[in-house]
């Protein structure tokens, strides 16, 4: 094994499993910068879900179906782009991937900055901008495998949990900040005309995050290095011959696909079933909840649990926690579906919301656990590719959940998701979690 040399842009002699050929400072520095960039990426991904619930308040006239589709498009584009990003760590390397991606975030941010100024902006343009936001979380399928190259297996749960959890918090940050940033003035940007007399000046839903993306790009180009893990695209396709790639994809659709899908649609689910667009409002009830006020809660809970549970996954293994997650998600989703069939008053919202936040709790546990499993049950390069692929498929969550909610009653969809989680519990127990399982992880 060559001696570790960290002086060049590409590390030589790098092997995280051998202490003398590993640098913890380089590993943790890489984690910090890539996580910072990933957090900004998730703010881009969830821009439409944060902005859409308020568009009609500031002069747009969009239907319920149009709003669901608007918040669904980033999931579709993210899933497609992740199929590209999963190959980048072993082809172009970490440094270029993080730096260029951070600059790409600027494009949808600037697009939405100008789009919300004019309520006559066409729906087609809004859909295009929503689609462009998929680049934000598409990077996840490159960033996470890249991080896996820098850490030994004993720390993989902690490292990937921190990156995934803190990165996901970006979605909560934009959902929490967007309502404020859309109706206030920053840096003297008061030159935009009001939509109507007495309406707020809409300028800052995205522009606040622009300089941070530039900073992330500068840090990446100046401070990051590449690891000597290289493979062409054909070589990386061997992950599809491993049955665990497919089974872990099924499980990650449960933990992240459902999590991200419901996180993106939380505000609209609340508005359409308990808020201003619900039957309760049609009946003349007042004091109904506003979805935008609650949208960030599930994202924060799931994200915090994702990195908080990383050390527990390192200690006890990921499989058992994935199993616990599946059982918990099945129970809470079933409870929410049942609650949606018996809405009688505004007070029912609190009970439903408690169940929904419980689902986000178990999803956060599962997100940490599944990413601990893959490095343990697969070779390092295959694990990186599998992480990228499973993340690509699961990122379709916001798109599929949005389409489903536009096509069927919310209660029916919640109950269908509960049944899917129950199936995942069976798969996880038989293959990974039971005593003497074939692939314990």
TrEMBL record:
Keyword line:
Membrane, Transmembrane, Transmembrane helix
Spell out the GO cellular component terms annotated for this protein, sorted alphabetically and separated by semicolons: membrane
How is this protein named in the record? Nitrate/nitrite transporter
Q: Which Pfam families match?
A: MFS_1 (PF07690)
Gene3D superfamilies, per database record: MFS general substrate transporter like domains (1.20.1250.20)
Molecular function GO terms recorded:
nitrate transmembrane transporter activity
Q: List, alphabetically, the InterPro entries matched.
A: MFS, MFS_trans_sf, NO3_transporter
Tell me the organism: Actinomyces gaoshouyii
Q: Which SUPFAM superfamilies match?
A: MFS general substrate transporter
Tell me where the transmembrane regions lie: 26-47, 67-85, 97-115, 121-144, 165-189, 201-224, 245-271, 291-309, 316-340, 352-371, 383-407, 413-432
Where's it mainly located? membrane
Topology versus the membrane:
Multi-pass membrane protein
Its family? Belongs to the major facilitator superfamily. Nitrate/nitrite porter (TC 2.A.1.8) family.
Compartments annotated for it: namely: Membrane
